[in-house]
Amino acid sequence: MKKDDALSKEFLSQFKTGEDLFAFMKELQKRGVEQFLEAEMNEHLGYEKSQVSDNKNARNGHSTKKIKTSFGENEIQVPRDRDGSFNPIVVPKRRNMIDGLENIILSFYAKGMSVSDIQEQIKDLYEFEVSTSAISRITDRVTNDIVSWQNRPLEPIYLIVWMDGIVFKVRENSKVINKTIYISVGLRRDGKKEVLGLWLGKNESAAFWMTVLTDLRARGVEDILITATDNLNGFTDTIKSVFPKSATQICVVHQIRNACKYVVWKDRKEFASDMKDIYGAPNREAAAHALDALDKKWNSKYSYAVKSWRTNWDELTVFFDFPLEIRKIIYTTNLIENLNGKIRKYTKNKMSFPTDDAVLKSAFLAIQEATKKWTMPIRDWGTILNQFMIIFEDRLIL
């Protein structure tokens, strides 16, 4: 065993219970915060405690302050200066909560907990009370973060942009109605995914998507190579009006679901198998033959289901224009649906939201949680990037 391991084991053996270790960590945090405060005072005055200076402002003892942290409530000594101009960053004036605890409160809120639930959870975990008004002030600060995030500049080019909506129940004028959070996710030139924004409207419509696309344009997006959407009526024309060069792929999974709505339960498995011959075909011509076979077999019984394929055929088969690696990531909106699923997971405790602001805050915080792992390029990025550069050589400048 290495010396460091032995020392570590010997050190940890002094803690007989989890409470002992927790108490030690609490004291360690207290001392750490106090050391940070002393360092901040040195920086504020321009000299250290043991040095002599001609600065008229000087240290003036300490004041006692109670702070609330993820280790519970603690009492610390805060250094003071004579003219009262010292305002520490670690524990600012008129605030008694360390950022770590604020982040925990925001995480609870992101997971759909109400203000009163958060208050109770903090009390159970850390054995002190945080007022509901303090919790509300913390979550209200998210509004400013949303405004900054929603108006940040975007990349000039996105290789793929996925767009979809998720419905929430929101109270408006004493009634609970359905409203849609419009979500857009872009694939950047470095292969990383990025949520481009959140927009709140009523029932999903092509007209509102025009607002979304115009906003993307205003924030610096000059070109989108491929868009992946559901088969909302008029969506493709809306995209073309803002980004005329974009190739628009309607989500095949959405198409399968919509077609199956017209098929009785006992026939769905067989019908779905026949549809797989269409989107699983090696090329557009083979897919067209598979659609003819579907038509011949099922049209007399499920004409609307077959017609839905023919009506959207051009947009449903765009993915056949691309290599297999690109096809896999554009013929379905699974990526953004997975994101929506995580948002649902975090907000499932909310039967309805009291205001538009509340639903936007919850969706924003849920996205921050859900996208923490979006730090690496998508799989096979080197191959996919080379394919994009060959196909879109005149538009894709790296």
Any low-confidence stretches, pLDDT <50, length ≥5? none
Query: Structural class of the helices, strands and pairings?
Result: alpha/beta
**Beta-strand percent range:** 15-25%
Order of helices and strands: HHEEHHHEEEHEHEHHHHHHHHH
Explain this structure to me?
The protein has 398 residues and is an alpha/beta fold. Helix content is 51%, strand content 18%. It is built from 16 helices and seven strands. The protein has helices at residues 3-12, 18-45, 99-110, 115-126, 132-150, 206-218, 235-242, 252-260, 265-279, 284-298, 303-311, 313-316, 324-330, 334-347, 356-370, 381-391, and strands spanning 59-69, 72-81, 157-172, 175-187, 193-201, 223-229, 247-250. It has a five-stranded mixed sheet, sandwiched between helices. It has a two-stranded antiparallel sheet with strand order 1-2. Helix 8 runs antiparallel to helix 11. The longest helix has 28 residues, at 18-45. It starts with a helix and ends in a 7-residue tail after the last helix. The mean pLDDT is 84.
Brief account:
With 398 residues, this protein is an alpha/beta fold.
Give a topology summary.
Layout (H helix, E strand, L loop, with lengths): L2 H10 L5 H28 L13 E11 L2 E10 L17 H12 L4 H12 L5 H19 L6 E16 L2 E13 L5 E9 L4 H13 L4 E7 L5 H8 L4 E4 L1 H9 L4 H15 L4 H15 L4 H9 L1 H4 L7 H7 L3 H14 L8 H15 L10 H11 L7
Parallel strand pairs: 3-6, 6-7
Antiparallel strand pairs: 1-2, 3-4, 4-5
